[in-house]
Amino acid sequence: MADFSNRYPGETVTLYTRVDVLASVPGFSLRIGLPEGLEVNGHQASSNHGNGLPDLVFLDGKRYLIWKLEKELRAGERYEYRLEATIAPTDQDVTWESRAVVMPLGQPGSSEKPAFHAETLAIAVSAKGRYLKYLPALYTEQDELMGRFVILFESFWQPIEQQIDSIYYYFDPKLAPLDFLPWLATWVDLVLDEQWPEEKRRLLLSAMVQLYRRRGTRRGLQDYLEIYTGRKAQITEHGAHNFQLGKANRLGPSVALGKKNMPHTFSVALRLASAENEAQARERRRKIEAIIESEKPAHTSYTLNIEEAE
């Protein structure tokens, strides 16, 4: 892959190649194609590759940078390579392609041809700034100075244009940058706990509209707790069990009807996996209590019971 897929002459581009070892092999050869439009500035391999340098090879009129690693490799190992280059001058728009091919070295004495894996990337190079199309034709007929001059302005404004063109991604909790999530949460008066795992924070924001509509209800609290714990909470609202009112029963000062009469109270029961230690259990309980406190009606009180799941 490359850090940029669209470049202008004179700008730099970095090519990244990663080799994952899927089975034990006695080494591999990595070949990276270098089109004429790329002028190599430098290269670097990950530390586990060693101190070996690549070879610059010409085959059939084409340039290649070849790394070789000759040692016993195990499945699961990973090697990374970086190649920095400058885009060469060009009179017309062109697309340069670079193909990376990795081939495991054959076993000694084996006549079988080793399989190879390849990936290709493309870099579109524009000879002149695209802002020229917004200027009178007179400017495009002059020398290349104007074409390169407008590139300066484009380099200032293009990142802003890309953000504007992709603004809808910032409003999607699944795609928005991590630092953008707390601002999204303020839309519904929600304060994100930064200690929550990222996936749970994104899941919470995806459901925030429905949670906001149900705020202060048993269903809303159940859904909120399920997002954090992954388990359905059992919520029981308490009230009078034998409430009776008639001609023989009248209300008066300091009179409560029925037994076990605890108005404005509820209990929450959760069955969760065992915590790794006591400190983790306390922290988990603290976060669950914080959720309940933020979602319950202000005049209510509750009891929380957390049991270990089998």
Low-confidence runs: none
Looking at the structure, the CATH topology of the largest domain is Immunoglobulin-like
CATH architecture of the largest domain: Sandwich
The helix/strand series, from N terminus to C terminus, equals: EEEEEEEEEHHHHHHHEEHE
Quote the distance from N terminus to C terminus: 47 Å
- Major sheet description: 6 strands, mixed
On the 0 to 100 scale, the average pLDDT is: 83
Assigned CATH class of the largest domain: Mainly Beta
Structural domains: how many: 3
* Rg over alpha carbons: 32 Å
Name given to the CATH homologous superfamily of the largest domain:
ntegrin, alpha v. Chain A, domain 4
How would you explain this protein's 3D organization?
The two termini are 47 Å apart. This protein has 3 domains: 6-127, ntegrin, alpha v. Chain A, domain 4 (Immunoglobulin-like); 129-165, no CATH class; 178-241 and 261-308, GMP Synthetase, Chain A, domain 3. It has a 6-stranded mixed β-sheet with strand order 1-9-8-3-6-5, with no helix packed on it. It has a 3-stranded antiparallel β-sheet with strand order 2-7-4, with no helix packed on it. It has a 3-stranded mixed β-sheet with strand order 10-11-12, with helices on one face. The chain is built from 8 helices and 12 strands. It has helices spanning 137-140, 144-165, 167-170, 181-185, 198-206, 208-213, 218-229, 278-295; strands at residues 6-7, 12-20, 28-34, 38-45, 55-59, 62-69, 78-87, 94-104, 117-125, 234-237, 265-272, 301-308. α7 packs antiparallel against α8. It is α+β, with helices and mostly antiparallel strands and 310 residues long. The model has no long low-confidence stretch (mean pLDDT 83).
